[in-house]
Design brief:
Distance between the termini: 74 Å
Number of helices: 11
Strand order of the largest sheet: 7-6-5-4-8
Helix content: 25-40%
Shape: extended
Largest sheet: 5 strands, antiparallel
Radius of gyration: 27 Å
Length: 318
């Protein structure tokens, strides 16, 4: 509804001080022409919105103007009271602060809404732990947080994949939690890099400050980095036929496998399936684990490898 959108524009301008027509259109999922019409409507209603032109221009409210809108719609209220991940709050040392903030927010609501908001914690719970959570060393996390807020460089010892530790000075820009794994995004030698926090063996904040890259958006960068990582993952594709008894269990294993496509069953009731693995070794271990319920069609060389593995197992237990 247009009324809701006009209110959203007001709140966005209050929170961001200045936004371009393009940014508002993307945020509200409308066209830039619609934003211009909405601004005309706000101006006609007496709302002091100004358009600043030029390279750093945009829409803003007249200085000191604040709307007194305080109403919350039902779904908006629910999003505010969704329980966050207590594991991640604990990692950041924010558990106590979050609980206190929650109580303050709850107390600010009308009595009629307090019970509804309080009930949200009994309806939705978010657990970011895996079933078998491995403990990770996160001793550097508090130092990283402080350096990020104060925009100060850190000197750190970082363990590489080969277990060697190198020392480097970086400019920390933000933290990202992927599941329960923390990553630090930082500028290292002039380039944006991702560092796994559990591999940071030492972290010391220096007295040297830095300037954050203009226009850097943490979430946007992470999404692009994640897509690039997935696209560059190694792939070993295998064409197989699988028994109907395991067709529903192909991805219910502890190994990474991607089912690219599944065909219709043949006269024997088996299904042609194309699978993708990171490596050939992963493919061999996975296929051998299903015994006689998977038959390899391609690549042919994999058949000989599986036969050799099976014969080695038989020899071991003779």
């Amino acid at each position: 509804m247009r009324a809701d959108r006009l209110i959203s524009i007001l709140l966005l301008l209050q929170n961001h001080e200045k936004m371009t027509t393009k940014a508002l259109a993307e945020e509200l999922e409308v066209t830039e022409r619609t934003i211009h019409r909405d601004m005309e409507a706000l101006s006609a209603a007496g709302i002091p919105v100004l358009a600043e032109r030029g390279k750093h221009g945009g829409w803003r409210l007249v200085d000191q103007y604040r709307t007194k809108l305080t109403g919350l719609k039902d779904n908006e209220l629910k999003t505010l009271f969704l329980s966050p991940s207590f594991q991640l709050l604990s990692d950041l040392g924010f558990t106590k602060d979050w609980k206190e903030a929650r109580q303050k927010l709850l107390a600010s609501l009308p009595n009629a809404l307090q019970s509804q908001a309080d009930d949200m914690w009994n309806r939705v719970h978010i657990d970011t732990n895996t079933w078998r959570q491995s403990s990770q060393e996160l001793s550097a996390l508090s130092t990283l947080q402080q350096a990020i807020w104060e925009e100060r460089k850190i000197k750190m010892g970082y363990e590489k994949a080969n277990k060697e530790t190198s020392e480097r000075i970086v400019e920390p820009l933000g933290l990202v939690a992927k599941g329960r794994t923390w990553y630090m995004i930082a500028v290292s030698n002039g380039e944006l890099r991702n560092f796994r926090v559990s591999r940071i063996k030492s972290a010391e904040m220096t007295d040297e400050t830095f300037t954050r890259p203009q226009g850097f958006q943490l979430a946007e960068y992470w999404n692009q980095s994640k897509q690039s990582f997935v696209q560059n993952l190694p792939a070993f594709e295998v064409d197989v036929e699988v028994s109907s008894s395991i067709i529903s269990r192909l991805t219910f294993t502890g190994r990474f496998v991607q089912v690219l496509n599944t065909g219709t069953s043949n006269e024997n009731g088996w299904f042609p399936v194309k699978l993708s693995f990171d490596t050939e070794q992963e493919a061999k271990a996975y296929i051998l684990g299903f015994g006689d319920q998977i038959r390899i069609n391609h690549p042919v060389s994999l058949i000989e490898s599986i036969k050799n593995m099976a014969e080695s197992v038989l020899s071991l237990y003779k």
